[in-house]
Amino acid sequence: MTFNPKVSIIIPVYNGSNYLNEAIDSALAQTYQNTEVIVVNDGSDDGGKTDTIAKSYGDKIRYFYKENGGVASALNYGIRLMEGEYFSWLSHDDLFYPEKTAKQIELLKNHPGAKAVFCNPEIIDASGKTTSKLNYQEGSETLRGAIHFWDLFIYACSLLVHKSCLSTIGMINEKNRTTQDIEFILLLLHHYDVWHIKKILVKRRDHQDSGYYKLNKIVIQEMEELFFRLLNRYGISFFYSNASNNMNNKTKDAATYQKLGDLNFEKTHNFSSYCYQKSIELHPSLLNLSKYKYSILSSNSSFMINAYRYIKRVTPKIKDYLYRSIFTSPLKNHK
Questions:
Q1: Residue-wise pLDDT tens for the chain (335 aa)?
Q2: What is the pTM assigned to this prediction?
Q3: Is 1 inside any structural domain?
Q4: In terms of domains, do 145 and 257 share one?
Q5: Is the residue at 2 inside a domain?
Q6: Tell me, what CATH number does 208's domain have?
Q7: Which domain holds residue 48?
């Protein structure tokens, strides 16, 4: 039987006249033919510029205007109206390679039962010039468990997802102003095998006008709230599926909490501190490095925090005794 499901490419946009036409053009240029392009104008107030660009495509796209409610609300609006069996999110400032959808549909055809697939991204600047290519080749062809969010850069706009997944993980969380994509990816990894096409098929535009830069403080705050919420709801096994999630294997779970703290040390200090505290609670031995890492964060010393970051970056496999010899002084007040 022919596998030819309809794919809905949804483009949420707010004041996007600078890049919208490029995004729409890349969606319309997909070599896979059974697609629809849905553009949702999230209450743009740019004097009609975004509206004019979208309407210029006529019936080549399905265009809708709604009151401003944020990216998640615009994306959900498009999902509710889509006619496709699979959906794909394309930010108004990003681009798809022409074969993006075709390659992903080909994988789904070859692996019946697969529900979600992502690809590697290329990073471009405001002018469209390539600044880096995140061409990940390592790892398994399928990922399961939220920890893979940190293993690879899984970009939301690189995903192709079956609509049935939403009945399990829910719609995009509209309470998140900046982390709606992160929560969606984490939940998808928790509930489903997510397949990885090890090809660059998406261009992600990195520019100073993006929400990540304009709302950076909110991003960090929302990330911490999100990680705490997921940890409280599902337990440590949400991030590490092989964790015991009980008190019967304290040493193993202590190490797991420490790993999770390490992954988030760079940005979400409160969440990392909590993970280190849980690790210490489960395994209070002085050999547990969480004691030293927790003391660094608790010291609120930018020097100590930056020193740890530097050592971690330069020598990622630094021996345990070096941690203890370098960072014992701040530990005195945090026994």
A1: 689 999 999 999 999 999 999 999 999 999 999 999 999 999 999 999 999 999 999 999 999 999 999 999 999 999 999 999 999 999 999 999 999 999 999 999 999 999 999 999 999 999 999 999 999 988 889 999 898 888 888 999 999 999 999 999 999 999 988 899 999 999 999 999 999 999 999 999 997 776 656 667 788 889 999 999 999 999 888 988 766 555 557 777 888 898 899 888 777 889 999 999 999 998 888 667 888 788 778 777 676 667 666 656 655 555 444 544 444 444 334 33
A2: 0.85
A3: no
A4: no
A5: no
A6: 3.90.550.10
A7: 7-214
- Structural contact between residues 122 and 199, judged by C-beta atoms closer than 8 angstroms: no
CA–CA gap between residue 252 and residue 327 (Å, rounded) = 24
